[in-house]
Amino acid sequence: MPEFGFSSAPANHNSQFFNHHSTTKLGTIRPTNSEHKFKFFVDKKSTGFLCSKLWDFNSGFNNFQFFGECCAIQSNRCRPRSKKHKVSCLKHAKTLVLNDYQPCSMCSGFYSTIQLGTLRPRNSESKFLSGGVLTIPISNSFKHGSGNLGLCEVNWSNKKFVLRSKSVLSVDKVVEREESGGELGRENSHDAIVIGSGIGGLVAATQLAVKGARVLVLEKYVIPGGSSGYYQRDGYTFDVGSSVMFGFSNKGNLNLITQALAAVGCEMQVIPDPTTVHFHLPNNLSIQVHREYSEFIAELTNKFPHEKEGILKFYSECWKIFNALNSLELKSLEEPIYLFGQFFQKPLECLTLAYYLPQNAGDIARKYIKDPQLLSFIDAEVVSTVNALQTPMINASMVLCDRHFGGINYPVGGVGGIAKSLAKGLVDQGSEIFYKANVTSIIVEQGKAVGVRLSDGREYFAKTIISNATRWDTFGKLLKGECIPKEEENFQKLYVKAPSFLSIHMGVKAEVLPPDTDCHHFVLEIDWTRLEEPYGSIFLSIPTILDSSLAPEGRHILHIFTTSSIEDWEGLPRKDYEAKKELVADEIISRLEKKLFPGLRSSIVFMEVGTPKTHRRFLARDKGTYGPMPRSTPKGLLGMPFNTTAIDRLYCVGDSCFPGQGVIAVAFSGVMCAHRVAADIGLEKKSPILDAALLRLLGWLRTLA
Ligand SMILES: NC(=O)c1ccc[n+]([C@@H]2O[C@H](COP(=O)([O-])OP(=O)(O)OC[C@H]3O[C@@H](n4cnc5c(N)ncnc54)[C@H](O)[C@@H]3O)[C@@H](O)[C@H]2O)c1
Ligand SMILES: CC(C)=CCC/C(C)=C/C=C/C(C)=C/C=C/C(C)=C/C=C/C=C(C)/C=C/C=C(C)/C=C/C=C(\C)CCC=C(C)C
């Protein structure tokens, strides 16, 4: 047995690595200036092992450059330090295998290949996106062992070499290294595999883990979060998507984000937003949704005095639903012991919810309100991709009341911290998350989902499989060779993919924002008919109003998005695609300049435009869709599927499940999913007879939608 030893060195101490032939020094782990950064030096003088001189995990396992001659891999925010460091990037190469790697004489014989996995060059020769699997064939003498490398933990065996961050906040990734695409045997299988680490997937995973399940989350990208992830550029921390956080207070039962974090021992500092959204609407109508309900109602009735009574009645009805929801313990509506228990304990509240389940907000608003402009405002207010007539009343009530009950709160450090904390919490519970793990198929045997296969050939098996990919991706792409079940056909009849969106992330000079600018804005300045049209409504968040640490000093972040369809962007030659991005962004900037911030254009110091193609690629969502939207007028939430599917042991979670789009909504779907799965694998009470009856009843109810 070779002799191994890593001193479990804290940051700034040396870590040593020994084998029986000689001593190989793995060098010093030096965290650089933030928790996210550290350097890992490997001493070239050693007799073997890695001949990489430097790994710099600056922005995750994101950006690699390879320096052939000096045997070093360096990620330095994609910027070569000098010309000699620059390597030409294999454009569009799917896998970058550094076969031309020149091992130094000390290293030869130990390995000849370093594979950086799926590397895709970004937009310049010196940039790569994402490292993926780093395969380092290991000398035969290295059989088994483990150790600590400062912020890293290393485990190796014959087949596997795993470098894993000890803290998700330090390094946002787990890198699997295998000699030959090894397979985790079925005897090692998990209780659940979760495909995708969006908030839906992470909440399902963490809730299961705290119930005692062993969970493996497989994420295609290099960090967790999906639409609720983040990225960093030039000193800015940008939220990928979500910036308006519902369910993040310390009050009541509906603060599902707070509860999900607390379940795994995490708490995030939040900053209360005094104005949820500032609406800038046609006819110069400007409405601020104040955190205080009474202030909001005063503002609205001031603008629409003739509708005072209707306003009070409509919002009171929303509160009735919100209060009923808030009184329940939220778990799986597909689990009869819980559901009947709630009916028994809170009959009035449950009947209230059952009554509103098939209703839409627009119809109820029209019972009380006649002014078309006010009705259009309510359409905009429900912040979904459709108008209030197509928005379930239960969902609208959540959005319209939680903003006053718990308020909208922004997490210090950015929205990405939520997913990072959940992922850390998951690992702390003894479960696992692998990044750059692209699931390409769900393995079904005798009608049961039993495992998944990754694009690199690895296979993992578990008692249950939970897909956080959209239902279109799950049933259209991941279940190969399976007929689409009738239930899914029905779902696709009732719901279509909402368009995707165009996003602009900007850094601007702080002076351009007038004092007292609000954090979130909705802009539809000219024509109400453009509300649901592509590029019609503009959503704008300025998170640096609340948390200035997200941008360099004297700068603000503007995160702008508007709906856009992928069809608009497909088939364009690169040059035209880039030109179109510029054109569309330019038009949006002009609108914002005119309406809100004169001089905006000249104050821009950083700008990146994402299109539906960007969202398809990074979020792995079919057509980059924002989520499901009803094909016509739905019967409230009646047609929305829950978490079980027609395939035994396969569950779905996320926004194509009940109750739909929205971060808090997918968090609820995660809670429900974890409860149903836990019952099915024996971690919660279950009654097979009642299960069968309830699932049949729910299936029948969906046919009425
Ligand atoms: N409030 C806002 O401003 C805002 C903005 C954007 C999105 N959102 C919300 O976020 C919600 C989405 O959350 P979600 O949890 O449903 O999903 P998600 O899309 O955020 O996350 C899904 C995750 O699964 C991963 N994935 C997909 N296919 C995979 C595969 N085959 N293998 C491995 N990983 C795979 C993706 O990379 C992604 O990380 C949307 O409903 C939307 O409403 C909100
Ligand atoms: C089952 C049967 C038969 C019966 C029974 C009865 C009962 C008991 C029932 C119950 C129910 C329940 C519990 C339900 C629940 C629900 C929930 C929780 C829901 C939630 C929802 C939420 C939502 C929807 C949310 C959403 C959100 C959103 C969408 C957001 C968005 C945002 C945005 C767009 C942003 C904006 C921005 C700017 C402006 C800048």
CATH topology of the domain at 190-228 and 413-495 and 630-703: FAD/NAD(P)-binding domain
CATH level-4 homologous superfamily of the domain at 190-228 and 413-495 and 630-703: FAD/NAD(P)-binding domain
Largest sheet: 7 strands, mixed
The chain-level mean pLDDT equals 78
Bound molecules: nicotinamide-adenine-dinucleotide, lycopene
The total count of helices amounts to 17
Q: How would you describe the shape?
A: globular
Can you give a write-up of this model?
Residues 1-184 have low confidence and may be disordered. The protein is built from 17 helices and 34 strands. It is globular, with a radius of gyration of 26 Å. Among the domains are: 14-182, no CATH class; 190-228 and 413-495 and 630-703, FAD/NAD(P)-binding domain (3-Layer(bba) Sandwich); 294-402, no CATH class. It starts with 13 loop residues before the first strand and ends with a helix. Strands 15, 16, 23, 24, 25, 26 and 34 form a seven-stranded mixed beta sheet that branches. A hairpin with a 2-residue loop joins β24 (439-445) and β25. Helices cover 29% and strands 24% of the residues. α1 (199-210) packs parallel to α10, α1 (199-210) runs parallel beside α16 and α4 (308-327) packs across α6 (347-356). The protein is α+β, with helices and mostly antiparallel strands. Residues 244, 246, 277, 325, 328, 330, 333, 342, 350, 353-354, 357, 383-384, 394-395, 398-399, 520-522, 539-541, 659-662, 664-665, 668, 701 line the site of lycopene.
